[in-house]
């Protein structure tokens, strides 16, 4: 960073020096055209020309320093680019392993579907138990049993739908992540053969997209009840 700031500072100073050189050149031209024969003005012109040459010399030295600093900056950029490529590729491989592990884990832990209890079975069982007792409230008891069985059936159905929805959502997220990974890998392989700089940009974009997908997936994750 210090090298970059130094280069910017020298460039700014060089621009100022160039502006001074142009202004001095204009003044010298005006003086030469106006009164080149007078002794006083001739000495003034000589002093200005000498100052102009000194300024140009300083400008040349500053340009040489800037060139050396730019060369060092290019070396630092190349080194940083190499390290960034290594870290990005390692991040890509690590993300691919995480996707595969998550896919295998979800396949091995598929939610079991709760067996639905049919109202007819519960009703028949209740009737067989209540037939032995001659209770005047048998009709009320049967009505309560039927209502309870219906509620249990509705709850089981909703629970199964919720588990199936969670499982489908997890499968969709995993499939989407794998599609994104395959797309970027193909594009990366094609681009690396053409342009190294574009390949580096793809690596950086893919790394940021992986981080965004992981954050989004963790926020939307639903734990089954």
Q: Into which percent range does the helicity of residues fall?
A: over 70%
Sketch the major β-sheet. Answer: none
- Strand share of the residues? under 5%
State the order of secondary-structure elements, H for helix, E for strand.
HHHHH
Cα shape: rod-shaped
Provide structural commentary.
This protein is mostly helical and 225 residues long. It contains five helices and no strands. It folds into two domains: 2-80; 110-220, no CATH class. 87% of the residues lie in helices and 0% in strands. The two termini are 53 Å apart. This is Ion transport domain-containing protein. The chain crosses the membrane at residues 16-38, 44-69. Keywords: Membrane, Transmembrane, Transmembrane helix.
List its salient traits.
225 residues; mainly alpha; rod-shaped; 2 domains
In short:
The chain has helices at residues 2-34, 39-108, 119-130, 138-192, 196-220. By secondary structure, it is mainly alpha-helical. Residues 1-7 and 112-120 have low confidence and may be disordered.
Topology:
Blueprint: H1 2-34, H2 39-108, H3 119-130, H4 138-192, H5 196-220
Helix pairs in contact: 1-2, 2-4, 2-5, 3-4, 4-5
């Amino acid at each position: 960073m210090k090298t970059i700031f130094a280069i910017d500072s020298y460039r700014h100073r060089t621009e100022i020096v160039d502006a001074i050189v142009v202004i001095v050149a204009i003044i010298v031209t005006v003086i030469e055209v106006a009164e080149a024969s007078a002794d006083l003005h001739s000495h003034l012109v000589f002093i200005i020309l000498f100052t102009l040459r000194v300024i140009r010399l300083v400008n040349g030295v500053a340009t040489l320093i800037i060139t050396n600093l730019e060369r060092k900056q290019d070396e630092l950029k190349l080194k940083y680019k190499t390290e960034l490529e290594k870290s990005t590729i390692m991040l890509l491989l690590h993300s691919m392993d995480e996707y595969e592990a998550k896919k295998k884990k979800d396949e091995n832990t598929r939610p079991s579907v709760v067996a639905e209890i049919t109202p007819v079975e519960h009703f028949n069982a209740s009737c067989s138990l209540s037939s032995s007792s001659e209770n005047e409230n048998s009709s009320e008891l049967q009505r309560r049993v039927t209502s309870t069985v219906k509620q249990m059936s509705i709850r089981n159905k909703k629970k199964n739908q919720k588990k199936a929805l969670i499982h489908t959502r997890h499968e969709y997220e995993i499939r989407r992540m794998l599609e994104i990974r395959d797309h970027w890998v193909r594009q990366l392989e094609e681009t690396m053969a053409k342009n190294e700089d574009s390949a580096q940009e793809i690596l950086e974009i893919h790394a940021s997209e992986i981080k965004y997908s992981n954050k989004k997936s963790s926020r939307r994750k639903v734990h089954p009840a």
